[in-house]
Design a protein that fits this description.
Elements: H1 4-11, H2 15-22, H3 25-37, H4 40-49, H5 53-70, H6 73-86, H7 94-119
Length: 120
């Protein structure tokens, strides 16, 4: 079992910032559990697969915002970079595909540690 602080350390998050904003660890855990149910990442993958860059941009932007609110700094940064690569873009560049790989790695790591935290 890991603590909230350990979870944030493992995923490159900003524990102190999110604790300051959400007040207590129980609330943080509730919001992290909701993060696991959010469809932004799945929408990003689906729209990337379908070649729909504008919708992929929206999904990446949503993911970035959620991560910023929850102090998930590493995933927020990689999704922000992808968002910028997709901004106003009609198609996927090689750079966007590389950035998606980074988002995927960050997302999978984040989800793994949140599950460890939630499921104990």
């Amino acid at each position: 079992m890991i603590t909230v602080k350990e979870c944030y350390a493992q995923i490159g998050g900003d524990y102190e910032d999110v604790l300051r904003r959400l007040s207590d660890e129980a609330r943080i855990k509730r919001f992290l559990a909701k993060f696991l149910q959010d469809s932004s990442y799945a929408d990003l993958l689906l729209n990337t697969e379908q070649g729909n860059a504008p919708e992929a941009f929206r999904a990446a932007h949503s993911l970035k915002g959620i991560c910023l609110n929850l102090g998930l700094s590493a995933l927020a940064q990689s999704s922000s970079q992808l968002t910028e690569a997709l901004r106003g873009c009609g198609e996927f560049s090689g750079t966007a595909r590389e950035l998606l790989e980074r988002v995927t790695a960050d997302y999978e790591k984040t989800v793994r540690y949140i599950k460890l935290l939630i499921e104990g």
